[in-house]
Amino acid sequence: MIGYWPLIHTIFREEKLFLLLKAGFEKHPNIGGLLFVKDDAEVNALDTIFNQFGTEKIMEILHPIFSPQNYYPILHHIFTKAPDHIPTFLNKFPWATQLRDHHGRSLQQAVLAAGPDIMNANNFLFPMLTDDQIREKDPITTLYPFAAMAVGEHADLEKSFYLLRRHPSVLERRSISSSTMVNIVTEKKRKRSDSIRSR
Predict the structure, then answer these.
(1) Where are the chain's structural domains?
(2) Does residue 110 contact residue 129 with C-beta atoms inside 8 Å?
(3) Considering the entire predicted model, what is its pTM?
(4) CA distance 153 to 40
(5) Bridge partners of 38?
């Protein structure tokens, strides 16, 4: 940091910016490199460099860093940390919609895990959830999407019920496994009581 400003907020030459961004993504890929580091005024680096160099120039600089061969899930970070820039990044990096992050989360799971507020800000993703995505548990929270929408202080029960109506089988799986466990426990108890009686 230079004073109260993170280094990325003080770069004025494109060549240095490219090197700094590339190094940031290599060293800190799980937090979005240095793009979302905030200064003391709570402005993230992405907004700072967009204002300083222009959106088009920054997207040119970022393109080789996020090329399809690098498999970097930049959209996971944009959707949750900088939703104002979603259209810009979706247009430039459409292949990133299919990537998974370091936790194994799809883009939809990352948005759901960020909470109902983030999901509501990205409402267009909601109707696009496929049946497979509705049936897939989050690899970290192990929650189905309907449950992720129903938790937290800003829970959205209407969307949670919508997902359940679309795919009630996620509850049936749970009840089948629960009833199977009950049958196993009952069978063990019966065998135990039979062995006690036979003594």
Answers:
(1) 1-99
(2) no
(3) 0.72
(4) 28
(5) 44
